[in-house]
Request: fold
Amino acid sequence: MLYSNNNIAGVLAIMLIAAPTAYAIDNPDTPSEVNQRIGSGNPVIGKDKSALCQGCHGEDGNSVSGDFPKLSGQWSDYIQKQVREFQNGARYNEVMTDMAMSVDNFNDLFDIAAYFASQKQMGGTPIEDEAEQKLYLEGQKLFTQGNARTGAFRCIKCHGEYGKGQPLNNNLFPVIGGQHKAYLIKQLTDFKHEVRENDRSGMMLRITTHLTAHDIEAVATYLSRVPAPAPVAVPAPVAVPVAAPVPESWKILLEDKPVNIEGANFVGGSTKLKSKIVKTLDEVVGFVGQHPDAELELIGYADSSGSAKLNQKLSLARAASVKKYLVKKGVAASRITAKGEGSANPIADNKTREGRAKNRRVEIHSVIKEEKKVRVTG
Reply:
């Protein structure tokens, strides 16, 4: 599962990773993580020196093609080791071997390697479909657990969690998590068929011998992909209930003031209510429903016309008419008292027609048993 001889630029870039503690590259990894990867080179100087390598491996070491390995965040010692092996013939690639042979100043090699090593570690690409997701899960299991039935070893032991390498700087076990899938398949296959021969311990040969082509593709899928994030369920906007405006009659009742049903709301010469007052009376019904401790007191009044006896009778009858309506709408009769006061307590001048109409009225008072009343605003 190591980098190999397929890509010349890849190897070359690999050789370009070694650097000192001082790094001026934009990298979200912690300084400690970066310093574990870089060697003795200078990453700042290495940026300019790596211009040729960037042509294949990308400006920041993230190549766009699977023909060229990603170098961003790779161990610098590993990169240098691969370059030296291209130079001594342990690895061969028509392009990369020539590139490696042109390196005769190891300070340049260290600086270039330091630059790539100081970059943010390579990252995978999103899973695109269900088939790839299935392969990803198979590869994840092989990478982390191996396969006891076939004898395949687990890869995590050497390459670390998610293939991100084992600290400290290690020139044997490269960072492979986030590498191109095609490149990983090529290297694993080359190890399996002994095309890549710089595996002196034979470790990769023993591992890949127990991997089928399908297994290799699954492991490469796991290492090169990151699962697509689960869709975030966006809750439907919760409608904030808008409080209904508080009826004016409720405010009046809670302020210990009466709701007046004036004479104009009765059919002339009778106790029958006109339809225009129904809305107000229905609000009173709602008020009683919202205030279980409330009782209503209905007081009927008349103007000064007519005899006291007639006025008393008429005022009581009108109060009784209002009570009848409220009871019909569901208010318990036991919560309502009705009485007539005749022409007492005028609220307007009985000498005028308008004044007398105001005095012919039924007042609705609320009596809440609890001392504490809730004041309604709105």
